[in-house]
Every structure is written in structure tokens, then in C-alpha cells.
Amino acid sequence: MLHKSTIQHLRFGFSLFLMPVFWFALSQAPVINWVNACLIFIILHLLVYPSSNGYNSYMDKDTGSIGGIEKPLPVHKELFYVSMVMDIIALLLSCLLGWAVLTGVGVYIIASRLYSYRGVRLKQYPVTGYLTVIICQGALVYFIVSNSVSDACLWKEGWLPAMVTSLLIGGTYPLTQVYQHQQDLEDGVITLSYKLGVRGTFIFCGLVLFVALLLLTLYFIRTGQWGALLAYGVGMLPVGFYFTSWCLKVKESPGNANFKNLMKMNYVASVCSSIAFISILIINKAG
């Protein structure tokens, strides 16, 4: 029986926030092997992401709110070993999907460890930490999923949508740090969000998201996915509305950049994005 804190710090629910990348990659795959799609979903969302969360929590030993947990329990040594076992299982299962997927999953695991490990701790560097997160959780995962579900090698053809996924992550990730500047500083971590300041973080994220949406629009137009363009535009309206209203609240009072408002933003963005990409998947496969 796993320790209660171990289960909490694996943060399985946090995988919901990274799920849109999976659905977007699936929607753009020319051919889908659904057995492989289910397998890579399990590998990423039930093994790799939770393991990364757990390892990060074990290294940080946070006492204040962190992504997905408002009141974290003290970490248990068991968490470290569980995260290692989950990584091994993920790599073994990845062997069933080919060398490209195995390599991609391996790179993700190594990068996540270097991000958190006290001996390297990439997260302590504002730009390096930021780039590590958006590249791995965005473009790398896009290619992992694409090469899992399709026999065609998509490393070349998928560079634009892959870049868009990194920008979408890049336009939201700093927002997850706005409420914990002091906690990060006490741990020796200087985040990009801290460098930008609370209001600067919102401006930066807004600009990155604008570029991401512009490139995504151009991609859909270039590939003739007019239904996808409409579905995504409609699906993201609630996200745009909430983000704007949150920006206005933060402008009135920086204290509104707190954990609860962030989690609302995360849920709205992830659910709406997933619904939009699932709709695009249906539209593309039905056509």
C-alpha cells in the first residue's frame, strides 16, 4: 500500500493539464494505430508525467502550494523509489512502440530529472528552465505521440504544429509560478515569472499565446483544415474570456494571482483545449 503523501505528490490529476498536446498530435496524424494511441496515453499520462511530478516534489520538498496541490503533505522516501519504478515501466512499454518513441520518452525522463535534481537543477535558471519545460512538454511530446500512432516518420513534417504546442505551453507555464515567487526564491530558484514580475508575466504569456494562435491559424489554413480552425476558435473563447478577466483582476490587485485562480485557469484551458482538439480529430477522421 502506497503512502498517502506518495499518491498525492504523483499528482495524477495534473496530467489533465498536459492532455491537449496528446489530442492535438492525434488529430494531425495521417493514420492512427488506436492500440498504440492507448498505450502511449498510458505511458505519458499514467507513468511519465506522474513520475516527473513525484520526483520534482521529492527534490523540492515544498511546504506551500504547488501545481495541483494546495496543501502538500511532507514527502516520503517511498516517493523517490516509486518514481524510479514508474520510469522503468514507461521505458519498457515504450520499447513496444519503436526506437524513436523509446528515445523520445527517455529524453523526456532525463530532462525532467535534470530539471529537478539538486546537483544540476535546471529549474533554478529562468530561461533554461523555461525552455526545458516548453520543449519537452510541447514539441517533444507531440513527436512522441505522432510517431507512436503512425508508421510514417513525422519528425520533419510536424515541425510547425510541434512548435505551436511548445508556444502554447510557453504561454501558460509562467502563470503557474506567479503565486510562488517567494517560495521559489527561498529554495534558490529564480523563475522567468519572477524576473518578469506578476504583471509582466501576464503580458509575456499573452504575447506568446498570441503568436501561438497566429501560427496555429496559419497552419490550419495552409493545410486546408477549415473545420479545425472553426472548432478551435470556438473552443478557445472561454479560455480567452477567463484569461482576460483574470488579467484585469490582477491589474486591480496583484494578490489575485493566487493558487485558486491559477487552478481555475488551468482547468478551463486544458478542458477547452482538449475538447477543441478532440473535435478536430473527429472532423479530420470523418472527412
Automatic annotation (TrEMBL):
Domain of life: Bacteria
Membrane topology according to the record: Multi-pass membrane protein
UniProt keyword annotations, A-Z: Membrane, Transmembrane, Transmembrane helix
Record-linked Pfam families: UbiA (PF01040)
Keyword Transcription on entry: no
Classification via InterPro entries: UbiA_prenyltransferase
Chief localisation class: membrane
Transmembrane segments: 6-26, 31-49, 88-115, 127-146, 158-175, 196-220, 226-244, 265-283
Places the protein is found: Membrane
The protein's name in its UniProt record: UbiA family prenyltransferase
Source species: Niabella yanshanensis
